[in-house]
Amino acid sequence: MNLLKLVTLLSLATSLLLAAPKTKENTQIKALIKMGQTSSKLLLKTLASNMKKNMKAGGPLQALDFCSQEAYTLTEKVNQKLPNGVRVKRISSKFRNPANKPTGNEQVVLESLQKLKDANILLPKQLIQKVDANTYKYYKPLIIKKQVCLKCHGDVKETDLKRAIAERYPIDKAMHYKMGDLRGAIVVTITK
Ligand code: HEC
User: Fold this and answer.
1) Residue ranges around ligand 1 (CB below 6 Å)
2) Fewer CB within 10 A of the terminal residue: the chain, N end or C end?
3) DSSP state of 173
4) pLDDT tens for residues 77-135?
5) SS (H, E, C) 22-65
6) CA atoms of 116 and 121, how far apart (whole Å)
7) Domain residue spans in the chain?
8) This prediction's pTM
9) From ligand 1's centre to the CA of 156, what distance in Å?
10) Nearest CA to ligand 1 atom 17
């Protein structure tokens, strides 16, 4: 064996050794990200297409009816389609439906995202939180990017719509948002 071959073999062996534990972790993280992306996309697509349909058919009032009656049921339906041990939901510090209130470890993530945003730091597309040895949470930050969101989450002026929101959500916190604001996040909980 010539010297060049020996050196190549040795460096190959060391890099394989060094890479071994990392690769396992990387594969696990990649799988978590993939699961998070597919699940969050499925929820977002389901809600968005239904919202559009209702907005077109009957404007914000009908879309509001849809959101208040169906958003939660649709989320449950999406969950039934996901593999065992995977659940998706929406959270917000300034929530409209109290069922979307973040739990302790989720609140920490939302607060951190808000702090980054306030410091003009571009937010990552996703975050992974290790909850315990068997549980991870995937977060996808939700930013207000479309004007239509402000119809129901901005400075709502239409009196009918305002009243309808107040009737359904007496402790609504989800108003007065502006374009580019952090609205909340999609959370995918993945249990081994
Ligand atoms: C027609 C009114 C309407 C429009 C338009 C609308 N929303 Fe909502 N949104 C609601 C209602 C009602 C709820 C509460 C749903 C429930 O009861 O689960 C809600 C809930 C949410 C939540 C869950 C957290 C919470 O506050 O309960 C997020 C996140 C959210 N909306 C983001 C958006 C974004 C982003 C857009 C724009 C793409 C948007 N919404 C457009 C009415 C609307």
Assistant:
1) 60, 63-64, 67-68, 71-72, 90, 92, 95-97, 100, 142, 144, 146, 148-149, 151-153, 174, 183-184
2) N
3) -
4) 999 999 999 999 999 999 999 999 999 999 999 999 999 999 999 999 999 999 999 99
5) HHHHHHHHHHHHHHHHHHHHHHHHHHHHHHHHHHHHHHHHHHHH
6) 5
7) 84-191
8) 0.89
9) 13
10) 68
